[in-house]
Queue: 4 jobs
Job 1
Amino acid sequence: MIDIIEAARAAGVEWLSLYAFSTENWRRPSAEVDFLMHLVRRVVRKHAPLLHARGIRCRFLGATDPRIPQSLARDFADLMTLTSNSRGMTLTVAFDHGGRRDIVEAARSLIHSGIPADAVTEQTFAAHLPFPDTPDVDLVIRTSGEQRISNFMLWQVAYAEWVFPPVLWPDFRAPHFLQCLHTYQQRERRFGGVLPNQNGEP
Amino acid sequence: MSHANGGHPSSSAGAGATDRGGSSQRLDIVEGARPMFGPGSQFDELFNDPRWALAMIRATVLEAAHPQIGAALIDNSTFVAHPWRRLRNTLLSLQRMFGADDHVRLREAARLNRLHARLNGTDARNRPYDAMDPGARAWVVATLFESTVTMCRLSGQPLEQAVMERLYGEFRAFLAALGGEPGHLPYTLNEFWPYYDRVVEEELENTDAMRIILYKLFDHLPAPPLLSGLPTLWATGRAVAGPVIGAITVASLPEPFRRRAGLPEVPGTQTLMQGAYLAVGLARFLPDNWTRAEGIADLLALSPESDDPRARTVTALADRMKRAGALLRLITPLPSSLQPMAQTGTHRSAQEFFHEVLDQTGDGYLDWPDLAAMARELSSRLDLDEPEETRLYNAYAHWWRELQADLDTDGDGRISAQEYSTAVPSLAGPALIRVAEVLFDVTDKDGNQSIDADEYRALFQTAFHRDTTGAYGTYTRSAFVKEFLSFMSGRQRSTPYDPLLTEA
């Protein structure tokens, strides 16, 4: 994983999101969930100093479920605090994330703030999503040959390009990542219309 | 400038040499006399002296040794569980009482009187106590005055007689502004010393409250909000400083009292104590802003997210502290075994909630003074006047009766942590809803049935920041009541109530 983060940073990617654990994953056997939680905790702690040193701002999307062990939640909070002033790449780890839930939360937040229905636009709505500074996603890489969205950042992937490398996630390394980037650069992005100048084109 | 007991010529004793003739019925208007309160007064010069911190501790110990005051402190005070909040409230109150603005002073005096009128009962030996007792109130003022004089004496810069008399006059005027009967604090400084010695010799006792301040508080002093992210660092510093502060304070107490209360004589502490006073005294030569007493207390207690103009600096500092603490925790090696996974993040356990929120006095039981302390804190935050303040207290009192009826299973009149957690608490009865509604009414100052930005700030003193739990723009009555109930009964963390009621 740290491999991919390094490759992305070196390739000039400014926003990288990883989908670590979905709200649906809680349905897995509890021993597996426990093991996973422990593993995540080790990974977070192991790489914290490096992420900090590289100037990578880290944050965790989701991560609100009370089933998340307190010690892990503390580490998440610590890593976010530690790197909050970093201005390099922003790494968003979607943990206990659900795209629909984010949208529901945004709706709830809009209603709380008493905005009249007529004033709700795509922009005001997006401002109430968690981490509203996150831009639209350009590229989604779905590994392991799966071809599903799986409730991942539903709002933000509206205009995303998708690639589906067959390689399994544990085997996915920097060269695979660069290959996906290359594929993306060949795509013609039209955002529903015809745009003369495209992002990333000379 | 007018006075609460205006026209009492004797109150001006010591207010200045030119004020002696008694030709004026007004207190302090005599040409050339220094003002009793505000800039130019003797108190104002001493208030920001860093030695005041030591003097205040000493005065508090002497107050707590008074049986009536000690009993009131033991029963009602939150100083064990929330010492920093209390320190800030005390300094703010003194500043209002001694400030130049008469209107502010009258209002603060009325507030203090209402607050103290609610503090009465009987002590462990069944003797009645009453925070409005004129003798006890005079003693509080006496200890503040005497500790100020002593702090100067101990640090080798005794006050001159004229200065001392002027200061005494100001403290008497302070008592008078509180509406105290003048007779309880002697008219002149010459009469004061015999009075002081007599109380020390005859009335002071080795009270529980005094022992708690001397020995328990400094050993268990919780970290102020600024340092709360670094518990280890704080504990280390406290382990060294705590006993030293205790020893210094003991050594500075009047000898006859130390002897009678059986306080230990540690060799060398006299020297240590005088050294400490001297060293702190030298800090007076630091730039002004570094040593403003209420400034320092404020900074320590200031929540980094508050909208105070200084918050930006504090936020920067607190951010660094937080990041350092975060890094320290992250690089600390993990124990190799799997951690227990039962703990949860957003809900606290019944035990945690009991100790962090309900037990405001920190004595291990939920009792009326705990709920009264919450009402008191909310009243102070919202700067309530009558009749709103009484409405809030009544709502809390009503809730207390409901709790007592439901949870006090052994019938001892108070609720233990055990009783609370075994009852699988259903706190959200009609009385608690009433508390929420009254709180809404008094927060909604303009009465437009919604709590808008300014009113919200007044209650929580926090800047707006969105988090995933919801945006706080305006609050309707039902949303407000719902959130209050979810904090008090659902034990939800991360609501704005946390900093309000749990912070030390």
Note: Residues 50 and 56 of chain A are 9 Å apart (CA to CA).
Job 2
Amino acid sequence: MGGADWTAVLRELFRVLVFPGFAFLLLLALAGEWLDRKAYARYQHRMGPPWFQPAADLIKLLAKEDLVPRLASRAVFTFLPVLALAAVACAYVYLPVAGGRAVYAFPGDLLVVAYLLTLPAILFFLAGWFSGSPYGAVGGVRAATQLLGYEVPLLLAVLAPAVVAGSWSISEVSRTLAGRPELLPLQVIGLVVALLALQGKLERVPFDIPEAETEVVAGTFTEYSGGRLALFRLAIGAELVVGLTLISNLYLGGHAAWGPVPGLVVYLFKLAVLVLILAAVRAAAARLRIEQMVTFCWRVLVPAALLQLFVVVALRGWWLL
Amino acid sequence: MGLWQRLVRWARVKSPWILHFNSGACNACDIEVLAALCPRFDVERLGMLLKGSPRHADVLVCTGPVTRQVARRLRRIYAQIPAPRFVLAVGTCAASGGVFRGCYNVLGGVDEAIPVDMYVPGCPPRPDAIIHGAAQLLAALARSGESAAGQPYAGTARGAAGGGATAPGGRAPAGDGQPAGDSEGRVAP
């Protein structure tokens, strides 16, 4: 092997592991959690946590005693948080980040990302189920029930931009829509549906039914402590970033540079705006019951997503696209 | 002290997650604790979050005298909190048993059942007093890096489950058939 090969390998590793890959994602996950909590506090006329709060929480949890209940399966209990973080981090390399370029792209990566983003919810179910606690089991079953609610509207909503761009590749969709910004207002319904479905996927208020602390202690995560809990929290923070990056690519025209503004700034700006919107939803709403949540998803979000799809298909079939 | 230990101590001081437990209080202290958690006082500035599960908590905020009925549960909740853990006793009753001291059904203050790191007097204490007590607890933690409380519980939660037998005036925390009560039945990694 020549020297040039090694440089290429190192550059590839850097892009996967550091920027815009894993390390960058973890940094964004912490920053995203802080912005979310700070915005939530400001909406309640509070000061909110200082900027280092998520990092302090993470370090504290890593240094705390890490318990495994006797009734829990030790291997599964340890494996699940790692797998959740890994699935989310894998999804991130297929998303165009700064400058509108993904680390990897192939036709059909949209479906792979949708699949990888479904994994954490299933892992949450397993985590609750195998933790040997009735609260964990109830939380896990709720997480799985909720999955049936938000997953279909999210997939339908993600379908519309793909139809507009005529491609299953996120990079391709993002590039096409960035080139034709006049198409973006046509997808407002899809954007709203996707944001609400993501709120459900992340188990945030009003869809925090699996973790409802007044009913099931901490639901899925009741028995998790220390480092394993830290990994789960990190996975949820990273899922927030990955989900919003996906939405920003599909509905907000990607992250190419705006004239003199570099792509990284555009990306962070769009991400921050979306986090503020999700925090506003969290601050404005109260928790639904599980059947209200599933009913809302199937009676409101699914028809809205189908309407969006119909609009896009009709426009594409007749005259506009 | 190495860099990692300093970082950990800093993180512990900056991120105390609390668990609220009523060991037999008349509810006055509990209402004040909840008031202290409201947006008006905004304890999230100090990194405090109220947690539902003992597994997530660092500081056990305990109100009221310890009744004989609840003492075993209190010890078990305490044992379920992963080490290092700290106890804040809120109110006169939590400090000494208060007006209930000497009752046939009352063990006494919280320190009769589990070690206490900081006491907040008052009947009930104001929310700002409770926050001040928590801040004092964190300041002590920042100085020493350790729990100020007694030895039997200073080790891991596994050690603590057995250590309950040595606590004054109480029986060993044997399992009593509570649904979530597998606190004795776990392994530290």
Note: Residues 150-189 of chain B have pLDDT under 50 and may be disordered.
Job 3
Amino acid sequence: MSVYAPTRSAAGTPAGPRTTNRPRRSASGPLREAGPLTYIALSLVLLFSAFPLYWMFVVATRGNQAIAQRPPAVLPGGQFAGNVVRTLENPAANFTTGLLNSAIVATTTTVSVVFFCSLAGFALAKLRFRGRNALLIGIVLTMMLPVQMAVVPMLIMMDAFDWRGDLRAVIVPFMVTGFGVFMLRQYALQGVPDELIESARVDGCSTFRTYWSIVLPALRPAMVVLGILTFMQNWNEFIWPIAVLGPDNPTVQVSIHNLNLGYTSDFALMFTGATFATLPLLLVFVVFGRKLIGGIMDGAIKG
Amino acid sequence: MKIVKGAGTVPDREPPVPGDAPAGEPRQERRTRWQSLRGRFDRRFSPYLFIAPYFLLFGIFGVFPMLFTFWVSLHDWSFIGGKAGFAGLDNYAFLVTDAKFWNALLNTLGIFVVAIVPQLLIALFLADTLNRQLRWRGFFRMGVILPYVTSIAAMAIVFGQLFGRDFGLINLSLESFGLDGIDWRSNRLASWVAIAVMIDWRWLGFNTLIYLAAMQAIPRDLYESAAIDGASRLRQFWQITVPMVRPTIMFTVIIATIGQMQLFTEPVIFSADYRGGNQNQFQTVAMLMFEEARQLDNFGYGAAISWIIFVLIVIFAVINVLFISRIRSAT
């Protein structure tokens, strides 16, 4: 198929628009050499970044005596398995359900956001149609509005839909984001050459086919970053799930919240729960960390 | 296959499919007409189909709830009793005189100031540090952004323990230096500091990377000529680096303001309820909204607070858009 040939050559051009017109190329001369003080300062910041995570793990692998002990424990202990069982069996937290639900919610919303936002972003960047600019302005003006703050009307709506306590309540409202549309639109503007779309047209591709086999591959770098951000955001969603989901069918954040309400002094229990809620994100970080850094630094976030 | 652009092909018509060629003449023609019709239909309506999911979902779960919020805020409304009558602007009249609302607004803005000033300053210095010839550059960047990729509620639990009055590590360290421990939850300023530390821990690296990107775009000859003029490094930082990244700083401040108006998770976990301490010393506006709506079953008033949060965020968002378009047109 002739469609694929231009696609591959697009991937071969220096990886999208952001690297090519990045102004840093104009900066001349070598960077200033880093001295030992620089390394010391950076190491301190690293320590500050990692310490709370490390401490979480230390307490989660020990009992509650690790907290009261003086001087405090420094190394992880051997009680992690016991704490895990205790946390999973805790009736207030419902952790197994919470973890499963969070995985479902974060994955579904991520796939959906990336798909629908790339469709809309492509249309707004590359297709000509009436009302395009007005719609784009509408998105830019509303993308900062937090739907999460509309707790009251959303609760009334969810009762009308009979979705209260149901996962649909925390998935469906978050299946698209204005930020995602805008971000992918900005990327498509430069990252998808008009010639490719034209030639697909000439070849007789429908618009959706053009999107699927040409635009989607070209948008991939930006879609990965959007995917990471969306996954993190929905994994972390707090105010709306605790408003609409009951303790029987929680997300992991709701589980943590319920533990925190009832077991404020059982730190081993809470820290193990906290570890559960953090580990999947750390996994995302290990796999996609570099892409995320690239996305933040290339201005993907700024749109 | 290489396609030559503008070589006389009509983009709307599909090329004949080779395998279908032996078909009779009229059939072929009909088929082509149908295909061109389909092509025109596709060109005309596909854009709307592509944007439809976004606008449909955003309409139902974005625009409508916002407007509905305002409608609810004009009523006495409770979850249990439902709508109980039109109240006009009574909820807003009450809000203006409600000491709890002003207290929550003060806390929200106070925590913002306590958090943002050190956060931006440290991020600037840190970005400047990372903008050097570094070994293990990727490693340091990963380390800096690590907190951004964690669960907010989970880390609030950890920080809540670190800031504990009796067994918190921070008080333990203070005491080991011969200082008095601080009651982080009951003292207003101390509670603001504790929450600000949680926010800064999470966002420091994010802002650092954004500043680093901006700093990499500064032409280096600026520094060279400044060095020739005998400007010290600190002076170069304040007189070249900071002015050059000022638009980026403004951007991060606006984003942070919008996020701050919704501050909820950290203080809720920190206080283990929605009150934010015995005297509401660290209750934010989002917490007050949640408390009124969810715990006190006061939907109308909760909606009024939501609406005020929207209005404030809209103001910041408009500033944001104006500001960014001004930067865009300037460059």
Note: Chain B has a mean pLDDT of 85.
Job 4
Amino acid sequence: MQFLQTPLPYLLAGISVGGQYALIAIGYTMVYGILRLINFAHGDVFMVAGMFMVFLSASLPLGLAIPLVLVITVLLGFLIERAAYKPLRDAPRMSVMISAIGVSYLLQNCALYFTGGLAKVFPQIPWISDTVEVFGAVTKRVTLITPVLTVALVIALVLFIRHTKIGMAMRAVAKDFETSRLMGIKVNSVISATFIIGSFLAAVGSLLYFTNYASVTPTSGGMPGLKCFVAAVFGGIGSIPGAVIGAFIIGICENIIKGMGWTTFSDAFTFALLIVILLVKPTGLFGEKATDKV
Amino acid sequence: MKKALALILCVCMALSLAACGGGSSASGSKTVTIGVFEPASGDNGAGGKQETLGVQYANSVQPTVDIGGETYNVVVKYVDNESSNDKASSAAAELVNAGCSVVLGSYGSGVSIAGGPTFENAGIPVVGITCTNPAVTEGNSYYFRICFLDPFQGTVLANYAFNKLGVTKAYCLNKLGDDYSGGLVNYFIEAFEKLGGECVHEEFPDGNSDFTSYVANAKAAGCGVFFSPVSTEAAQLIIDQAVAQGVTFPLLAGDTWDSNVILQAAQGKNVNITVTTFYPEGADAAFDTNIKAWINGDATNKANNGGDDTVAAVTAMGYDAYFFALAAMQKAGSTDPAKIMEALWSTEYTGVTGPIALDQTNGDAIRNTAYVKQVDTASGSWIALDPVTIG
């Protein structure tokens, strides 16, 4: 019941991890919105970004390593889409999903091969991994930066989708894939753009997440990936604000549950929440009404 | 075009499989196979690799054994149990199929308990190296062990916290469903409460990497010590988080934390870490010097040891386990697993970690000394404190 006496550390941790979940959840929700595909490899792209950072920072200065990690992760997301999903564009939806699961395992096993299965220590990024004190709660600075950066990125993303040509194309493709193709929208480049944005946000999320929890293993992407997927479904899959709010709710609730002393059930809670939401509101908080065109 | 691509991919896969199968070689002299049942990946991968290093080094020192007047080459067969209770029995079966006479391992009690029945059914004796949970050998007459047990280690740690640190409230954290940390935490709580202390006990689920709330809980509850004998992987994150939250209480753990992973995580940080272990570096100068030279002489070994030449207690234990197994073979005068199993009960051997003899109920080592070490955060090395002997 420590939460009731000193709620601040738990709220801080919750908001911070919620922001990191949000950045990953956007990737799930955007891809689903456009392709109706649950990209199971997304959590592993997040993990691989962490691995890139570990290996690159060993030989390059951080000022160079960080942008390079972002670029390589974006490239990886793009390549995964081109190699594993695009050839299956007209295949049954299930085949693409299986392909996504395959990519997920491929990435995990590659990471296992290159690390020898051992946890890698994520490098300390100066300034953001410094310890700071906020109203008596001691934490890393990244905890404070994460929510701000997340909100800023989300606003930028929403503006991008509302006000640019490619954003408009994205909305059109999400609305009706076939018709927008007929209208001359280059569906493939729209989809690539989606994967690029998703991977970029996952890379940023990974930098923030691993700065806080500084150990990267081949399975590091598993749990956060699953939780972010839950967050995306919770907020209404396909909806960006929904995914962000869902992620914050899950991050905060999880930490409050731990603070109440029910540490054993913190993960069970996340998944129980998913079941309840699906029973009560199958489309999620902000989900569009089911418009399956049969 | 597509068909051709698919065909090429199939051929590639078939070729790579074929390449895997062609590794066996036949040599003229007689051989005896010792299996090494250790994790090389997963939560306990780092520790398992260090324990395996001890066996590898021992094998390089003593690659042959004289049994009944004949010289046998010792073949060591390594499998990775992936620190996972689900994978343990198939890894064990792989060793059984390889025709091992005796098996060494594992680091981590959970996999040892999970793999135990496979060895028992095959009638192959196993020498546990650092699996400290009592359930490993209980009811399994084929499982032996050369390390101390958790009821003992838990008592030592509880006494240390209560008497040496003068703490009356302890925070205990273990991984949900993990036999090692769960067992040790329970024995600690039992002993600590008997002394008159109070414990706050929490568990974290598998795959968790956010320890913020656990550290915050310990702080808020006003605990004087943080006891968390978990895997080194989780330990890194706990240390990091404890530093980030500026905790003032010491962190206390069991033998798993006696690893250079912990040293690297704690170096240059303001944190107090104390562990109990099997062997303090420096206890056997000749052994330390030789194994350091061996580790430094090979890049792979050095990487497996975590990138430096610190001698982990589990490495010393792995070294002793190998020689203990050879001693049992010699006593049995045979490479037959059943004969070795009978001989193990009465095998005695004095290794670098001290004299090893087994009790006659479960085949556990009779050990009553635990070494206590503390991290020197300035230099990133261990400082040996007074060893604790009970009974």
Note: Chain A touches chain B at residues 2, 5-6, 9-10, 13, 17, 112, 116-119, 121, 131, 133, 137-140, 212-215, 217-220, 222-223, 254-255, 258-259, 261, 263-264, 266-268 (CB under 8 Å).
